[in-house]
Amino acid sequence: MRLLRLSLFIVLLIFSYSLHAQGLFKKKDSIVTKSLSESWELDQKDKNGTFRLNSYKPFYILPLQWSNRINKQPQSIGSEPAFEEPIDYQSTEVKFQLSFKTKVLQSFLFGKGDLWMGYTQTANWQVYNKKLSRPFRELNYEPELIAIFPLTFNVFGFKGKMVGVGFNHQSNGRADPISRSWNRVMLHFAVERDNFQVYLKPWLRIGSGSEEDDNPKIEDYVGRAEANVIYKKNGHSLDLLWRNSLSFNENHGSIQFNYMYPIRNNLRGHLQVFSGYGENLIDYNHYQTTIGLGISFVEW
Questions:
Q1: What is the mean pLDDT of residues 158-186?
Q2: Annotated catalytic residue: which of 7, 76, 99, 171?
Q3: 107 is catalytic
Q4: Where's the active site on this chain (predicted)?
Q5: 10 Å Cβ neighbour count for 294?
Q6: What are phi and psi of 22, to 5 degrees?
Q7: Residue, of 297 and 88, whose pLDDT is higher
Q8: 2: which residues sit within 8 A by CB, 6+ positions away?
Q9: How far apart are CA 106 and CA 116, in angstroms?
Q10: Is 214 one of the annotated binding-site residues?
Q11: Per-residue pLDDT tens for 63-92?
């Protein structure tokens, strides 16, 4: 409880300092907001060559994440519970995410395409659970390979910026009965208008229905596509991520909201709210709502 109170104090201190230092959406000159072209080096003027580390998805740590229904007894569809008795997990834990990408091939295929490698890792850490020796409840590893091509068109004021295709692997690196992994071929499409960026990513799962499938029907719960709408202004970011199974019978999915606001340079306060299935892989078929408070470190 002492560590929990300390973490709560730190988070409240960060939020209080930021709100005192600036009004909502007040300009902060040290914050640089990246366009889609700058993030993915789409235009010739933004090309930076290969094998340079770049930010990818949000890079954050949430010292406090609370779940209204923590998963104490993981269970795959069609299987028995992984453990005979529920695990005594606490509803409050730490969550963090690391994410970066690097270009491995520039201007291939008639000089138009770039090939990127990405890596994202998320962790749910029961750091306040002294009774269980503060274990990592779940670690997810997500490497991917993405071919991106620039676009130039306008529809209703939105500028088409890029299209691509990628191979995505996600796993938790655990042994049975709590092993979880899947492979996907993902399409990438993005448009931009003023301070708005919109990403659309439908995907096709590879290897569904095999005898070695350790998370059957994951696409029916986590989804078959996602839409990510991002609004950025003066260092503030509002991010709405929606995933859906695209099923008319039993429609599942999730929605996640992130709000990041500037504190100093690239340091931001971070609020995250999630509701639905698949907060992580071990919870792919587990419905919950989570609220997290913390900090983000870089623009993505």
A1: 95
A2: 171
A3: no
A4: 169, 171
A5: 22
A6: -155, 155
A7: 88
A8: none
A9: 9
A10: yes
A11: 999 999 999 999 999 888 888 899 999 999
